[in-house]
Amino acid sequence: MSSQEIAIEPKLNYLNCDYSIKSWLLTTDHKRIAWLYMMAITFFFTVGGIAATLMRLNLLEPQGLLVEPETYNKLFSIHGIIMVFFFLVPSIPAVMGNFLLPMMLGARDVAFPKLNLLSWYIFMTGGSLVLYAVIAGGVDTGWTFYTPLSTLYLNTHVMAAAGGVFIAGFSSILTGLNFVVTIHKMRAPGLTWFRLPLFVWAMYAASIIFIIGTPVIAISLFLIVVERIFHVGIFDPSLGGDPILFQHLFWFYSHPAVYVMILPSMGVISELITAFSRKRIFGYHFVAFSSVAIAAIGFLVWGHHMFISGQSVYAGLVFSALSMAVAIPSAVKVFNWTATLYKGSISYEAPMLYALGFIGLFTIGGLTGLYLATTGLDQHVHDTYFVIAHFHYIMVGGAVMGYLGGIHYWWPKMTGRLYPDGWARVAAIIVFVGFNLTFFPQFILGYLGMPRRYAVYPPEFHTLNVISTAGASILGLGYVIPLIYLAWSVRYGPIAGPNPWKATGLEWTTSSPPPTHNFEETPIVTEEPYRYDRLAEEIHVA
Amino acid sequence: MHNSQAVVAEQFDDRVQQHEAASLGMWIFLATEIMFFGGLFTGYTVYRNLYTTAFETGSHLLNARIGALNTAILIASSLTMALAVHSAQTGKRAKLIFFIISTMCLGAAFLLIKFFFEWTHDYAEGFVPGLHFTYAGPHASHVALFMCFYFIMTGVHALHMVAGEGVLTVLLIMAWRGRFSQERYNAIEMMGLYWHFVDIVWIFLFPLLYLLGARF
Amino acid sequence: MPHAFPLFPQEASTVAPAVDHLFYFLTAVSIFFASLIFLLIFYFAVKYRRRSKDEPPPKNQVINNIPLEVTWTVIPMILVAIMYLWGAEIFVRNAQPPPNALEIFVIGKQWMWHIEHNNGKREINALHIPAGVPVKLTMTSQDVIHDFSVPAFRMKMDVVPDRYTTEWFEATQPGKYRLFCDQYCGMGHALMRGWVYVMTPQDYQRWLTSGVTGQTMAEQGAALYNQLGCVTCHGTGKGPPFAGLYGRTVKLSDGTTVVANDAYIRESILDPSAQIVNGYPAIMPTFKGQVSEEQILQLTAYIKSLASTESNTGAP
After folding, report:
1. pLDDT per residue as tens digits for the range A183-192
2. Average pLDDT in the C96-100 region?
3. Is C3 on the interface with A (CB under 8 A)?
4. Which residue of B11, B32, B145 is in closest CB contact with A241?
5. Are residues C70 and C199 in the same domain?
6. From residue C150, how far is each of A453, B72, C90, C99 by CA, in Å?
7. Contact A198, A291 (CB under 8 A)
8. CA dihedral (A412, A417, A418, A424) positive or negative
9. pLDDT in tens, chain B (216 residues)
10. How many domains does chain C have?
11. In this structure, are C87 and C132 located in the same domain?
12. How far is residue C67's CA from residue A323's CA, in Å, rounded to a whole number?
């Protein structure tokens, strides 16, 4: 490909080929389905974010500033359910995975395009049911639905919420199935496994988790609904049921689910670090295998959420050891990304700022996970704000930063337009600062002993809560700014051209926005990804 | 512009790729189904270990002969399904239609026996927790737990069979319209995989639910 | 109005320093690695920044270094192994209350803690204990899962319905320490809190015996033993006698053995046909619905108080 690109908007692309609503709602084009998901999850993120805002505002005062405890309990439940199941789990796979996977593979679409559209409709159905639960009065089970509280002691809209998550789970399952088949069967000629971009490896690992894990939470929620309707005692101890069995079934999915949330983000980071340091990834095989290892070992650690549940000490020791093991591949990735920067040619556009921020924040999040995997220490910090800080460092400092970085990186490809990078960098920095201010104090709060899910708290925790809420307001601002300039750029941004970042990767060889069938001719792949060193030769020759 | 003779969907390069993709997709879907039923089997295993006697009592309350009859019916339906697949692969439209209908009839027989014989009988006897449970022997609540699992597991299984009947109906209509040929039989083959899977699940369910405790 | 806010909890139990030392170790490792990564990123980002828009990508890129990969895999493995073992030691120790521990009983219910001492003294949302004495809490819930958490002791344990869980600690200095419910349990979860009052042993004794006019737990259990009719079988040989039973290994009718502990006694009362003592008929009726959790604990206390008068192998 030539290093000189003329930035003209192509005549017919996947966006302008048909403007009708019907063409959007009945599309089978993976790129349009990605937009459908993006609109949906942005909406859900807003709902979950409003819940978080109200929570943090309430926590400004030890006695609760805004709402009664019953309402607060609904807020944190809704925040968790929506953020986990309707934002984080779909985010990168359903948006970026859908948009990019076929393109990175040199394919025209995913293996089952109609199934892909069905996945979106299933997702929206589940989401609507959960929204109904919210509007009709809320649900206060926590996103974890622990029994017997959720089955016998609450009369909020538990079934609607559980049902909504149940339905949305099938969306994940079908998407995972679609991706695995696409990756196995639809790679372009010459595209062997070890020539795949690491984003694809990450999507593959996440898809395995979708496939194997999601059905188990489906059955767990199904049993909750059955118990509520028929008053049978599946988890009712007075009828012989075991409430801890629910915890095992729930966490068997929900732990791998957190790897579903982080692995795609890690895949994005591999793409960003290489592109913005113009370097091949350091340790390609190690990073690729680490993704698979995280997914595999991730299925064996669920009991670390249950060290003090009444689970046996021996089980706890086994789960603790395996949890230590799962930390190692993540560390390996962080080291490999850092090494990729060595002797690179580094620029600081917004995607790179998000990527660098990810590495730092994910490192902290991952290290604090070790505190929780260490049984003797977990006995102190379990169910405290320490846990909340840990998982927000991973999910917000990690997954969301990766999502935003990816959105910014591939925005020109998706829309054909550039966004104003100055504003983007400012927003990235605001997010980074606001995030740390919000969540770092929570580590301290947790070690001090402040329990999670507390609507009111003792006065000695006041100052740290105020700092955390202040940070949250900054973080919120950092999220609002991109909404504005990204929307602006669709209409008014400069034309991007096929490859504004001069990056490697098949997706950059086609026009921006791409034609509906992605490539005019099926590409043939002859080398590994990230061959920026070859680019150097070409530039020298040209 | 749909060419009714078009064999390969646009995202695929050729028939081979399309066939392989469909197969892999169906196998993965079956893997998810294994995990779905797996959650139920896990719960069953835990409670059976805890309440072995009560589970045996509960199992004795079920009619193992009817269960065995249903097992035979389902196995027969797997045979007719396999024959349907073979008919499709060899392009024999009449036989394909015959075997699809046979499979559907056997499946329907299974469902009729289950719903209109077994379950109505269970309800009349007061074995249905949450709706009509009057068993008053020892450990009634644990026997109720067994019955819970019985109804949920066979119910979810039956749901899968109903869905299967629905898909078979669609395939029957397509076969009637001559949509299948030696070059184009993916859907029948995939349905065969699904149907065999549903059969295999039942083969696990039958002994675990109907044959506990020494009997016969 | 906070004038100063704490950044670190008090150490008020014998295990707290061990937990804190482990915390310091993890924090040191975390600070080291986080700083290392932050500094390297910062250093590389500055040193290798793109100096001009048209700067070509670097040639001769190093993309592999197996010794490096092995090093940065093995060193973290060693560090996490240390964390694992260190934490496991504390965790296992926490699961093994000393045999002479002072037993106190906790019943959690939405949304309060009922606590009962052996001598019958009860308290709500408060736990008085002596310093320097290991205390073992035997806990159960009457409804949903709760959690009895004392951050100053670095200790918590879930409180589960229909079973007993235990936690133990030895407080080191007199004072007042927060008690939290730490498993979300519904509307009043955040209000299900209280205080642990650690007193000198003399003060504790004085507190324990003051204002107690009623019976000890064992005495109440003895009364129940008669009122509920347990004596009609267990006092006449129709059912296994209780003298010296607590803590002994019991032979069951299916040939297995079980230790007669709190959980065994509770199950025997609520679901007697689950485990039959060898040599006795399975005729004991269930008392489910007729005894509260508190009464079960009192009956257990009574059984515990019965010294062994003769050996009893469970056979007639």
Report:
1. 999 999 999 9
2. 94
3. no
4. B145
5. yes
6. 17, 60, 16, 22
7. yes
8. negative
9. 344 445 788 899 998 999 999 999 999 999 999 999 999 999 999 999 999 989 999 999 999 999 999 999 999 999 999 999 999 999 999 999 999 999 999 999 999 999 999 999 999 999 999 889 999 888 888 999 999 999 999 999 999 999 999 999 999 999 999 999 888 898 999 999 999 999 999 999 999 999 998 766
10. 2
11. yes
12. 25
Average pLDDT over every residue of A141-152 = 96
* CATH architecture of the region B34-210: Up-down Bundle (1.20)
Residue C273 at interface with chain B, using a CB cutoff of 8 Å:
yes
- Cβ distance of A112 and B21 shorter than 8 Å: yes
Q: B33 and A215: CB-CB below 8 Å? A: yes
Quick check: A215 and B36 CB within 8 A? Answer: yes
C30–B contact, CB cutoff 8 A: no
The whole-angstrom distance between A201's CA and the closest CA on chain B is 18
Assigned domain for C37 exists: no
Q: Are residues C138 and C192 in the same domain?
A: yes
Q: Which of C162, C256, C267, C271 to mutate to test the interface with B (most CBs of B within 10 A)?
A: C271
**Residue C269 belongs to a domain:** yes
**Which chains reach chain A with 3 or more Cβ–Cβ distances below 8 angstroms?**
B, C
Amino acid identity of residue A537, one-letter, is E
Domain shared by C209 and C106, yes or no: yes
A181 interface with B at CB cutoff 8 Å? yes
Q: Parse chain B into domains and list their residue ranges.
A: 34-210
Phi and psi angles of residue C250, each rounded to the nearest 5 degrees, phi first = -110, 140
Indicate whether C106 and C165 sit together in one domain: yes
Are both C94 and C170 inside the same structural domain?
yes
The candidate with the shortest Cα–Cα distance to C172, out of C6, C8, C11, C9, is C11
Tell me: do C142 and C200 sit in the same domain: yes
Residues of C in contact with B138 (CB under 8 A): 273
**Which range of residues forms the domain containing residue C274?**
217-305
**Structural domains of chain A in order of their starting residue, each with its CATH number:** 27-541 (1.20.210.10)
Q: Does residue C203 sit in helix, strand or coil? A: helix
The reply to whether C160 and C178 lie within a common domain is: yes
Burial classification of residue C257, based on how many CB atoms lie within 10 Å of its CB (0-12 exposed, 13-18 middle, 19 or more buried): exposed
Q: Which residues contact C54 (CB under 8 A, 6 or more apart)?
A: none
Domain assignment present for residue C206? The answer is yes
A507 touches chain B (CB under 8 A): no
Interface of B with C in 90-149 (CB under 8 A): 138-139
Which residues in chain B have Cβ-Cβ distances shorter than 8 Å to A110?
A: 11
Contact A307, A375 (CB under 8 A): yes
Hey, of C163, C253, C256, C273, which one would you mutate to test binding to chain B, going by the most B CBs within 10 A of its CB? C273
Residues 148-207 of C with CB under 8 A from A: 149, 151-152, 154-158, 160-163, 165, 178, 180-191, 193
Q: Tell me which residue in C5, C57, C190 faces A463 most closely, judged by beta carbons.
A: C5
ipTM of the complex: 0.93
Q: Please say which residue of C214, C244, C266 terminates a domain.
A: C214
Distance CA A212, CA A174 (A): 11
Q: How confident is the model at residue A389 (pLDDT cuts 50, 70, 90)?
A: very high
Q: What CATH number should be reported for the domain holding residue C148?
A: 2.60.40.420
Does any domain span residue C89?
yes
Residue ending a domain, among C214, C234, C268, is C214
DSSP output for A73-142: HHHHHHHHHHHIIIIITTIIIIIIIHHHHHHHHT-SS-S-HHHHHHHHHHHHHHHHHHHHHHHTT---ST
Considering only CB atoms, which chain A residues are within 8 Å of C5? 460-464
The pLDDT assigned to C316 comes to 39
> How many alpha carbons fall within 13 Å on the CB side of residue B210?
19
Nearest Cβ partner for A374 among C33, C64, C87: C87
CATH number for the domain harbouring residue C264: 1.10.760.10
